[in-house]
Amino acid sequence: MSMSKNADAPHKFEKKLGIVKEKERVVSVEPIHSKYIPRPGDLVIGYVEGCTNNIWFVDIGAPFNAILPMSLGPSKAEFGGARSVIDIGEAIICRVQEVEETHSSVVSMKGMGLRKINFGIVEQLPPHLIGRIIGKGGKFLSELKSNSECRIVVADNGRIWVDGDITGIFKVRNTISKFVNENRRGEN
Questions:
Q1: β 115-116/159-163 pair status
Q2: CA 53-54-58 angle, 5° bins
Q3: How far apart are the C-alpha atoms of 179 and 188, rounded to whole Å?
Q4: In angstroms, rounded to a whole number, what is the distance separating the alpha carbons of residues 116 and 155?
Q5: What CATH number belongs to 121-185?
Q6: For all residues of the chain together, what is the average pLDDT?
Q7: Which residues of the chain are in CATH 2.40.50.140 domains?
Q8: CA 85/CA 64 separation, integer angstroms
Q9: Class of CATH domain 43-116
Q10: SS3 for 135?
């Protein structure tokens, strides 16, 4: 737990659970736990939790489900045929198009690389560790891809899609698991 004095109001303290980092004359607190808060343009991996005639409801790991309208989906279907395109329980790679004041968001599957996930696995890690798994200049992620010979997509919401042969997928899963455990150990 870290408490820091607020420079603007010296009699107040700010409270944030995390690890205190000090670099030169700047002190910051890196969170131990974080929730995903969507922002427009974020690449996310979501799970379809429900649908109506022309809208899918997608769990993107945010406080509220996102909606995916048929017009922003992967393909057109007849009115009422949403489940024939993407069914409940399926995973998708999409992009946050807009976030409303109420924090509900709209996602889109229009764009390169945005699709339904038919193969591979989806792993979950705390969103604040995404920058570390990518590494400086993408170095850690590039090494992970070349060592496992897998396709890997790291989403802003803390979900990672891994596709390849079974031994490569296990290598990636073990590396991610070890990575998360090491970062948790360093936070205690």
A1: unpaired
A2: 105
A3: 15
A4: 14
A5: 3.30.1370.10
A6: 86
A7: 43-116
A8: 23
A9: mainly beta
A10: coil
Report whether pLDDT(3) > 60: no
pLDDT in tens, 136-172: 888 999 999 999 999 999 999 999 999 999 999 999 9
Kindly indicate the confidence band of residue 188, based on its pLDDT and cuts at 50, 70 and 90.
very low
* Length of the chain as a residue count: 188
Give the Cα separation of 20 and 61 in Å (integer).
26
DSSP for 39-74, please give it. Answer: -TT-EEEEEEEEE-SSEEEEE-SSSS-EEEEGGGSS
Tokens linked to 140: 């850690």
User: Which residues make up the CATH 3.30.1370.10 domain(s) of the chain?
Assistant: 121-185
Q: State the distance between the two ends of the chain, measured CA to CA, in whole angstroms.
A: 10
pLDDT tens digits, 105-131: 999 999 999 999 999 999 998 888 888
Average pLDDT of the residues in 84-106: 92
Quote the longest CA-to-CA distance of the chain: 62
Q: For residues 22 and 29, what is the distance between their CA atoms, to the nearest angstrom?
A: 9
